[in-house]
Specification:
Layout lengths: L11 E5 L3 H13 L4 H13 L21 E8 L2 E8 L5 H11 L4 E3 H10 L10 H13 L35 E7 L5 E7 L20 E4 L3 E7 L1 H4 L4 H10 L4 H15 L8 E7 L4 E5 L6 E5 L2 E5 L3 E2 L5
Parallel strand pairs: 3-4, 10-13
Antiparallel strand pairs: 1-5, 1-11, 2-3, 2-6, 5-6, 7-8, 8-9, 9-10, 11-12
Bound molecules: N-hydroxy-L-asparagine.
N-hydroxy-L-asparagine (SD4) binds next to β8.
Length: 322
């Protein structure tokens, strides 16, 4: 069916972490005015990628073990319409480059220096990715293996609502590992889309790529069913194709929250979990219902709907006492 002939839906944006709202506010007016879900997720993620205070995505993201920031991202509206890029090191906006790959090439994914070269061809400006705060964090990590301002010993991230920070925490346990933004959208035309963007695991081995840019792992969209994005320990998500597993469970009849919890239960069964491990999922179904679930406490999701922008606690926490 032509998307313009679908009935009107209530525009909705959903993102991982409360810092997602910073992107939603940038994307909202266009979406509310009838813009497409693809445009909205791209605009929202680009705003977050450019935000220096957010220490896990784009400029401001923590570098690898050699002090180099590398970025991964993807975008998707259906199994036949998706694009992805990984290990960018000279361009700031993986989601926009992933969209160009989706729309202008016959491929899904480009990697590394060749992906940066493709971005050059597309006229994407080159950018410095290492912020002063991220450089300072790297310098300290090189000296003593710690992240500045990290409090507590769980090594997990905590959402400090409004600050944009989850690693360089001022007063809550910061995450030694990583995080990411996953943004999902339903537009007035009833079309779902999603995008995902990350600087990956702080101080990772050079070349390491996590789940975020891989379709079916960090992001999956079935236009007739739901969109799901996953953040957290990418290596756990990659063990179970987390976003695909959740959408597929919904396609087979599970409720959105049951589908997300099924992914978490599978991860809990199949991995020896470390205290630093975290996995968080957000879902938006084709009717506009949204929810989130997380392995452990410390996560919040962003939801924008009917002109309201809210950070919400997860609907389910598998291990609430951890
Ligand atoms: C990864 N899941 O690279 C991604 C980003 C991240 O928590 O760190 N998310 O593993």
């Amino acid at each position: 069916m032509d998307q313009m002939s679908k009935p009107t839906h209530m525009p909705t944006l959903v993102s991982t972490w409360s810092f997602g709202l910073r992107g939603h506010r940038v994307a909202w007016d266009g979406l509310d005015a009838g813009g497409t879900s693809l445009d909205a997720v791209e605009a929202s993620c680009c705003a977050i990628e450019a935000d220096e205070e957010i220490d896990s995505v784009g400029y401001g993201g923590l570098p690898d073990a050699q002090g180099r920031v590398t970025l991964d991202g993807c975008i998707m509206s259906s199994p036949s319409r998706c694009g992805s890029v990984c290990c960018l090191s000279t361009h700031l906006h993986p989601v926009r480059i992933a969209r160009a790959i989706m729309e202008k090439t016959s491929h899904v994914m480009l990697a590394g220096a060749s992906a940066d070269a493709y971005a050059d061809q597309q006229g994407e400006p080159r950018a410095e990715l290492l912020s002063p705060a991220a450089r300072a964090a790297y310098d300290q990590w090189k000296v003593d293996g710690t992240i500045p301002d990290q409090v507590g010993d769980s090594g997990r991230p905590f959402d400090q609502e409004g600050s944009g920070r989850i690693f360089l925490a001022a007063d809550e346990a910061a995450w030694k590992h990583h995080d990411t933004v996953g943004t999902l959208c339903l537009d007035r035309h009833g079309s779902l889309a999603g995008a995902c963007s990350t600087s990956g695991a702080p101080f990772k081995l050079p070349g390491r790529v996590g789940d975020s840019p891989i379709i079916g792992h960090g992001l999956y969209v079935d236009p007739d069913v739901a969109a799901v994005s996953v953040t957290g320990s990418g290596e756990l998500v990659m063990g179970c194709c987390g976003s695909f597993l959740a959408v597929e469970a919904m396609r087979r009849g599970a409720s959105p929250i049951d589908a997300l919890v099924e992914v978490l239960r599978r991860i809990e069964r199949q991995f020896d979990l470390l205290p630093s491990h975290q996995v968080c999922l957000v879902a938006l179904d084709a009717q506009g219902a949204s929810c989130s679930a997380t392995l452990r406490p410390g996560f919040r999701m962003s939801v924008s709907r009917e002109g309201r922008h809210e950070a919400l606690d997860p609907d389910a926490v598998l291990l609430p006492d951890d």
